[in-house]
Automatic annotation (TrEMBL):
Belongs to the integrin beta chain family. SUPFAM superfamilies: EGF/Laminin, Integrin domains, Plexin repeat, vWA-like. This is Integrin beta. GO terms for cellular component: cell surface; focal adhesion; integrin complex. Residues 14-413 form the Integrin beta subunit VWA domain. The keyword Transmembrane helix applies. Signal peptide: none annotated. Keywords: Calcium, Cell adhesion, Cell membrane, Disulfide bond, EGF-like domain, Glycoprotein, Integrin, Magnesium, Membrane, Metal-binding, Repeat, Signal, Transmembrane, Transmembrane helix. GO terms for biological process: cell adhesion mediated by integrin; cell migration; cell-cell adhesion; integrin-mediated signaling pathway. The gene is ITGB8. Its main location: membrane.
């Protein structure tokens, strides 16, 4: 945000209003600031206020800060506690490190579709389920497993409601099937893999009428029924869903006359989901919220035909050998504050790749670390102006550890020990009762001896000048008689670009002086290699040598063709050379030739007799530098 934005409006008349314009704005509460100018002139960038005479310790200019509490230890997620100090328009970033330990406790729950089309897959699970559970122990020495089954809602039109079909949906095929069910919790998570084998062997298929299954309905119960399932708080939770068909969605329930939305609660009685026929299928958003809330990572073991339907519902499909690979985080906050904040996450994966705007890494092995750069921005203050803390949670999906982020909103002003901000909350109206009061106020806006209100560069509001903001710069002062642009220019820049215009005069940067800050204070540019100033024959003025004698020339007053006798200058030993003043343009060749002719005529030919004895040995090597 531009610094000019702070002082671009006369409507800014209070300190909180000034700070709300952006992180570049500051408020000066110095009592004698700008000789009684209107309160709006107190709002500007800190640099501009400093140049106008406001002391740095008399500014309300809260800074953005990040505070990390390093006292809370964590085995997988760090840091665990972060505090951000933000003001409107500001943003701040912090880094979250997530590492999957190699021997971290793991709970795996099998949720298996036992409809008739899953017969082959169920038989295959019986043969590989135990081997799979044993292979999981390579990733965790504290591994537990559970089991549950589902089909669909046991109501028409999802199943055949003929009495003979309810108890045995496969009676037409002379096969004994179990009744259809929404969800049955079979085995609580346990270390006993042999018990898992026994449970899988006892499973029988069921049947239903339509193609989709009640997958999401059963998943929600497996997620929220924490005590029944046996999810351990300290473990990583993996929900493995095995099916060969897509899932019903929320509105599908209306086909069966079910119109009651799912309440997202656990409804297990005797390990059976008892409300499956009374409540709708959960929405995808509702299911995703419960997965995050209970730190459960869902894994879908599906065939190729059903792969699309699950990957497009914001879930994650991976083979069992890769259940540790995907890493991602989710940031949550109270919905009451969502409109005033924004969050961005950039990921740095173990292979060094960086993904801006992405909160996910793949191909992460146990022991590797993923870095999430989280940026939080604040757009505005709360409507009630209450500076209460806002809580955010950064949750790595599937982990039972998270980062608590406390955002401290800076919306008020701390105007020193006295608490006086010298603002004006009534700048828009002074309550003038009549025309006489209005004219009296205008007279207070005129400088002594001037009949112009606010110097013609502002408006009189309640007896005080509110200066206009022009394109050239800021206008200020009690009568708007001051500005920061009516100073000399050099090379097209105000104060040569080496100073600031204050009260019509250039205040130069360190090392510069002059009316337009065009003169360096240092005399180093006037010194020769031996350290002598202007070769001892001049003065250093504005970074250049001014020679004391008119016959001397050169950048350092080191050239003087007429300062010596002719023989001293020209009757020299053999191989001495005379250098002609360097010229910078080829277009000056004619002038150089004329100069040479005059040079030879005056300093060589007229002295021919004096140097006759040595003239035969004299050689002149004239070097032209173009």
């Amino acid at each position: 945000m531009s610094e000019d934005h702070c002082a671009s409006s006369a409507l800014v008349s209070t300190c909180p209003e000034c700070l709300s314009r952006g992180p570049a704005c500051a408020w000066c509460y110095q009592e004698d600031f700008l000789d009684g100018a209107h309160a709006s002139q107190r709002c500007d960038s800190a640099a501009n206020l400093l140049r106008k005479g406001c002391s740095e310790n008399m500014m309300a200019n809260p800074q953005v800060r990040v505070e990390v509490n390093a006292t809370l230890s964590s085995s997988q997620v760090a840091p665990r506690d972060v505090s951000l100090h933000l003001r409107p328009g500001a943003e701040s970033s912090f880094v979250v490190e997530v590492q999957q330990l190699e021997r971290y406790p793991v709970d795996l729950y099998y949720l298996v579709d036992v409809s008739a089309s899953m017969q082959d897959n169920l038989d295959r699970l019986k043969s590989v389920g135990v081997a799979l559970s044993h292979s999981m122990r390579e990733y965790s020495s504290d591994f537990r497993v559970g089991f549950g089954s589902f089909v669909d809602k046991p109501v028409s039109p999802y199943i055949n409601v003929h009495p003979s079909k309810i108890q045995n949906p496969c009676s037409d095929y002379e096969v004994q099937c179990r009744p259809a069910h929404g969800f049955i919790h079979v085995l609580r998570v346990t270390e006993n893999v042999t018990e898992l084998t026994r449970v899988i062997d006892q499973q029988r298929i069921s049947g239903n009428m339509d193609t989709p299954e009640g997958t999401f309905d059963a998943m929600l119960q497996a997620v929220v029924c924490q005590k029944d399932i046996g999810w351990r708080p300290e473990a990583k939770h993996l929900l493995l869903v095995m099916t060969d068909q897509p899932s019903h969605l929320a509105l599908d329930s209306k086909l069966a006359g079910i119109v009651v939305p799912h309440d997202g609660k656990c409804h297990l009685e005797g390990n059976t989901y008892v409300q499956t026929a009374n409540m709708e299928h959960p929405t995808i958003g509702q299911l995703a919220e419960k997965l995050l809330e209970n730190n459960i990572y869902s894994i879908f073991a599906v065939d190729q035909l059903s792969h699309w339907s699950y990957t497009h519902t914001h879930t994650h499909t991976h083979t069992l050998t890769h259940i540790y690979l995907p890493f991602r985080v989710c940031v949550t906050m109270d919905s009451a504050h969502v409109q005033r904040f924004w969050v961005n996450v950039a990921t740095v994966c173990p292979d060094g790749s960086s993904r801006a705007g992405s909160s996910r890494c793949s191909n992460v092995q146990p022991g590797q670390t993923v870095f999430f750069n989280v940026t939080v921005g604040m757009t505005s203050c709360p409507a009630d102006d209450v500076d209460e803390d806002v809580l955010l949670t950064v949750q790595p999906v599937g982990f039972n550890e998270s980062v608590a982020v406390r955002v401290k909103q800076t919306c008020g002003c701390d105007c020193g020990l006295a608490g006086r901000c010298h603002d004006n909350g009534e700048s828009g109206s002074c309550g003038a009762a009549d025309e006489e009061a209005r004219l009296a106020g205008h007279r207070q806006c005129q400088a002594e001896g001037s009949g112009t209100v606010c110097s013609g560069r502002g408006s009189c509001v309640c007896g005080m000048c509110v200066c206009h903001h022009g394109n050239l710069g800021a206008v200020y002062g009690k009568f708007c008689e001051l500005d920061d642009f009516s100073c000399p220019y050099q090379d097209g820049l105000l104060c040569g670009g080496r100073g600031q215009c204050v009260l019509g005069e250039c205040r130069c940067q360190t090392g510069w002086t002059g009316e337009s800050c065009g003169c360096p204070i240092s005399a180093e540019t006037c010194r020769s290699n031996d350290g002598i100033l202007c070769s001892g024959h001049g003065r250093c003025v504005c970074g250049s040598c001014v020679c004391d004698e008119p016959q001397r020339s050169g950048r350092l007053c080191d050239k003087c063709p007429t300062c010596y006798s002719s023989c001293q200058t020209h009757c020299t030993d053999t191989n001495k050379s005379v250098s002609v003043i360097r010229k910078k343009s080829v277009s000056n060749i004619d002038q150089i030739l004329i100069y040479l002719k005059v040079f030879f005529f005056i300093f060589i030919k007229q002295r021919h007799d004096v140097c006759r004895e040595r003239n035969s040995e004299l050689q002149y090597n004239i070097v032209l530098h173009l």
